[in-house]
Design a protein that fits this description.
The structure is a single chain. With 334 residues, the chain is α/β, with parallel strands linked by helices. It contains ten helices and 13 strands. It has a seven-stranded parallel beta sheet, with helices on both faces. The radius of gyration is 20 Å and the shape is globular. The protein binds NADP nicotinamide-adenine-dinucleotide phosphate (NAP) and ligand G4F.
């Protein structure tokens, strides 16, 4: 049997690192696309362990540069293309709205065009998001819930979502949207609230300054009233792979179906280390957003029924995994 080949854009990101592991375990040839970074070695920390695998190749490319994507598709003739590249931080999207639009919408069109022109039978996965629901119109959110994005990140991703549907309907491309709710892991970026909390809790436990203010044990946060449906990145990338194994392209919500507040997260993370977060958390306007998404809760019935997907991590296991991992990483620095 011919060895399958998959391209993953945004290869050094959280999700791409887990997806590459999943595909390599299935004997794929994996081509990761990374944009140039002047800090290449430190930027590649999530995929450093994959670099010596002969089935893992890294190519320099940027999804806003159509020439680079066309070249990579033409060279590798992939069976599957996972577009995970994005300006993925909602908070930053108000500071860089145009850049966010170009990457999160224009970049999707570049990937789809490359496939249409060069390899139209490639199966395409678009990393869509629960941020499309924004100011939610019903709860829980399903594949048919109307969208109401609340940020430049959200409205750019909305265009990416519809570009994916449009290339499916216009050209018959096997193009699928995974509408993924928040998913985290020990590899999550430190700017996202989950990892910001688990990292700070571990630092406080070990007596290492959190680094936010002059007070060594302070954790400044924004709106801690918001609620999310948090799962694990590895489980969610398993769902992405399952979607592209289907004959017919489709759009799927991926979520745990369980709602938790940031207060629950603080209780769990600090509590796991015998700490009380109320002694450390302060409010800082800087971390508030011009428009907030108060609540996101997904209904994963469709993917469970049609693809048999089940998450293996619950909220407790996810938070404990993240806190323990931060503790292990930081112990050498205490
Ligand atoms: P992440 O860790 O921020 O990874 C995104 C990657 O995209 C980064 O490595 C980044 O490169 C790369 N990138 C940014 N602009 C690029 C460009 N123009 N060309 C090529 N690469 C570019 O995010 P993630 O959590 O793994 O998320 C993966 C995807 O899923 C994103 O599209 C995100 O919007 C979407 N999503 C995530 C979640 C979630 O909860 N994690 C939920 C729904 C949807 P640098 O390392 O150079 O910055
Ligand atoms: O962790 P967050 O930054 O994630 P957010 O905005 O939900 O976005 C993530 O999930 C989306 C899927 O729904 C993805 F599409 C997106 O790419 C990203 O992965 O913020 C979560 C909540 C927000 O309500 C925010 O206002 O936490 C609140 N929050 C409160 N204090 C904070 C902070 N968020 C951050 N990042 N930092 C704070 O200090």
């Amino acid at each position: 049997m011919k060895q399958p080949c998959a391209i993953i854009s945004g290869a050094r990101g959280q999700d791409a690192s887990y997806l590459a592991e999943i595909l390599l375990e299935k004997n794929y040839r994996v081509v990761g696309i990374n944009r140039r970074s002047s800090a290449r070695d430190s930027a590649n920390w999530r995929i450093a362990h994959l670099m010596s695998n002969p089935n893992y190749i890294v190519e320099l490319g940027d999804i806003t540069d159509s020439g680079s994507i066309n070249r990579i598709v033409a060279t590798y003739q992939p069976d599957e293309f996972y577009n995970l590249a994005a300006q993925s931080f909602v908070g930053a999207s108000w500071n860089e709205p145009y850049h966010t639009l170009i990457v999160n919408a224009g970049g999707v069109v570049n990937c789809l065009e490359a496939l249409r022109q060069v390899k139209p039978d490639t199966k395409f996965y678009q990393a869509s998001t629960s941020e499309l629901y924004g100011k939610v119109q019903e709860t829980p959110q399903t594949e048919t819930t109307p969208f109401y994005p609340r940020s430049p990140y959200g409205f750019a991703k909305l265009a990416g979502y519809w570009a994916t549907v449009n290339y499916r309907e216009s050209y018959g491309i096997h193009a699928t949207n995974g509408i993924l709710f928040n998913h985290e892991s020990p590899r999550r970026g430190l700017e996202f609230v989950t990892r910001k909390i688990t990292d700070a809790a571990a630092k406080i436990k070990l007596g290492i300054p959190t680094g936010y203010t002059k007070r060594a044990d302070e954790l400044p946060l924004g709106n801690i009233e918001s609620k999310r449906d948090w799962g694990h990145s590895r489980d969610f990338m398993q769902a992405a792979w399952l979607m592209l194994q289907e004959e017919v392209p489709n759009d799927y919500v991926v979520a745990t179906g369980k709602l938790h507040s940031i207060r629950d997260l603080l209780d769990k993370a600090f509590g796991h280390l015998g700490l009380d977060w109320r002694n450390h958390v302060t409010k800082d306007e800087k971390f508030w957003r011009p428009a907030e998404v108060d609540l996101l809760l997904g209904d994963p019935t469709k993917i469970k029924k049609l693809l048999g997907w089940e998450p293996s991590y619950n909220f407790h296991a996810l938070v404990v995994d993240m806190v323990d991992s931060d503790l292990r990483r930081l112990r050498g620095k205490a």
